[in-house]
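Obj.: predict assembly geometry.
Materials: sequence records (below).
Method: joint structure prediction, all chains together.
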Amino acid sequence: MSIGLEVRQLSKHYGAQRVVSDVSLSVPNGEFVCFLGPSGCGKTTLLRMIAGLEVPSAGRILMNHQDITDTPVHQRNFAMVFQALALFPFLNVEENIAYSLRFRTINAQQRHEMVRDLLALIRLPDIGQRRIDQLSGGQRQRVAIARALAQEPMLFLLDEPLSALDAKLRDHMQVELRQLQQKLHITTVLVTHDQREAMSLADTLVVMADGRIQQIGSPTQIYRQPANRFVASFIGRSNLIDAQVEDRWRVNVGRASIGPLSVPRDLPAGAGVTLAVRPEDVRVLTAGDTTPNCLPGRVTFVRDVGNEIELRIDCDGREIIAATSPAAWAALSSTIHGVGSIGVLLPPESCHLLSS
Amino acid sequence: MTRALRGTFLALLALFLSAPLIVVTGVSFNGNARMNFPPQHVSVIWYGNFFSDAGWRSAFTLSLVIAALSSLVALSIALPLAYAVWRHGSRAARALQALARISFLLPSVVVSIVFLVFWSAIGHAGHIEDTILSHAVVFVTLPLTTIGLGFQSIDPALIDAARTLGARDSEVLRTVIRPILLPYAICGLVFVFILSLNEYIIAYMVAGFEVETLPIKVFNNLRMGFTPTMCVGAVLFMLLGVLGFGVIALIGDLPKLLGGRSQGNG
Amino acid sequence: MKRARLSLLLLWPGLVTLSLTVVPVLLLLRISLAPQDPSAPWGTGVSSEAYASLLAADSLRSLGRSLELALSVALISLGAGFPLAYCITRMRRRVQVLWLVFLLATLTLSDVLIAFSWQVLLSKRIGLSKLLVALGLMDQPDSLAPSVGGVIGCLVYLVIPFTVLTLYPSLSQLDRGLIEAARTLGAPAWRSFTSVVIPLTRVPAVIAFVLSAVLTLGSFVPPLALGRPEHWPMSVLIGNAALAGHNLPRASAMSVLLLLVTALLAWGAAQTLRRRAA
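Observations (raw structure tokens):
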């Protein structure tokens, strides 16, 4: 695939405050990319710089190999959907959608057809004459998307567009948005702090914190092979366990030895590392089990969250969270007789080493 | 306050505030030239008189012309000033805005003397322009306030949205800012129009002998004695006031314009 | 570029505002120091004649009457306007808008027309005196104007809408939760008003008071139309000096005095608020 959007060493600072630091990334044409990070991580500023709404302090932005860093926003032909949608309250639905067409030479007939097609695309063919305040949240959402698409943009930018919707509608709109993007094959960048949303929408995730990119990768890569502690803890739940290198293949957690793992060559024996393991990968066994890769522990807290049982286990002062199936927990709890002493198995194939 | 007490209080104040208006309206419908209330021999003869008398008619027209022009002049001052404060936030614009608001807050007799002195000093007293410009300056604080509120009500995201949709700055001004601002500007216009229409002492001081507006004519007649025709003028102005503010209430959010809670969270 | 655009924007507003506020006030100061000249609006040269005339007994008495009138009208208007504004903010939106339109319409109605309406209302043949006779408070209908009561009544009528609309924003935005909190903490309705609402609206109340006083200080028509010459405050003397007496220096000097009184009132209010806030 050809490279569509390219960002080179982009930075933005307000006085001494650095909001975005030295960000580089590229988005192939037709791909759906999510900028994911906690609030204040610089993801929205990055998006606004791409849109042309903020002037970068340093760095370049390219679209289809053309430098557009100095192109004014209204000439970029990038569509943007805003967090609060920013639909014009003084225009009706049709006029909102047709807004960008005012700045083009296009006749009334063509304009009418385009609006009609877009209304059909968002599956709201009959609301053209409605006022914005007569629409439901989901309808507004779709109208904002249609308005952005009307200019047939090269790039589709979305700034937390679904955050105002309730959970159920948001799920629904995510699916719809993804289908629409695939249908139109339009290069899309979406900013969100909701990792579930990012995971379910994006081809590629860009995880950001403190104005810097922490990791770029597919959802599976990011989930399975987090690059650092931040990514491991921000994406899903993770147990981050301090460990020491034993040899090229094993690490020690307390007295237990976990392996086989692939320990980076440059780490000597005794070096501190972090072992990241997802709660759903942790297995719990009867106490005193001599299985390898197993730590003794005591259950301190049990939480039933419906489809799974979440256990908090104290292993010699380390807290490890395990998620297990209700059936497995029922079988186990009958054997430990409420004492709570169990064995915690960390399967090496699910353990991921991070340098401390 | 208990309900009954509150009801009585409100009714009494409403009565106090409407009594003079009711009496004047009643008297204007009298069939004869005497002050009677309730009116005797109800008739609209004095309304006919008002509009057939060239003096009253011209005073009325003059008032309307002055009010219309001074509200436009006030708008021409307030609009760029409020825009400069909103867009550039410059200190000069802020200082000028504060200055523009002052004359509304000073004792009106003093303000009228201030204007009289000014127009006399430049040798131009007694012209209709004096009344128009003086009214525009005294009442400019109202469009400044309403238009200022209008600018504040513009969601910056709307401007960003318009720009990403291909609008250049001048087109943003035309397609986003203008439609949002329009009701606020109209409200400012109506305020100045009605206040100017009713203003007496400044109009009298700067050009009262040459430019006889309706309030001036009523006042001059007041000294000579009662005629029910004066009541007609009063009734017309009341109606214009209610009409003007009724329009504002319809096109704008009146409580919000007056600084209260807006429709959304009220 | 940006500076140039800003200057262009401010050119017309600046020109008009400066030439019709700052310049005339400076002229006023100058003319208050000019001698009277019967053949011209004012004479040439410098004279303290106008200011000296302010020390005459009748000038001082009129200033006293101005202050007396201003303070009593402001007090009555605040006393009635505060609860009215409070009640209005508690009404349903539609009723609220009706009251606001009504208040704005009376607020903007010419003081000439209002003074005239009061003359009619207070006249012998009409209205109030008949009502008082019917209630047995008066023996026979009589004219109730000119009188100080008439002047005060008419001025209160003129000033109340200003008072209400000055108080309206803060009362309207008052956090209702605070009143409810006071009620749940055991305060009766009137106590929640005096212990929560009044302290929170102290600043606009003082502003409304000063505004009412200044409006009264500047009023010309009502005291002229409804009062006797011995009731006339300084504002009427200013108008008469400028119009009937053709003595612009004296009118200017009295205007300067009223400006000083206004500034003093505003300063006093600011001091009160600052001391209470500290």
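Conclusions so far: Chains A and C do not touch (no CB pair under 8 Å).
To do: check interface contacts against the pulldown list.
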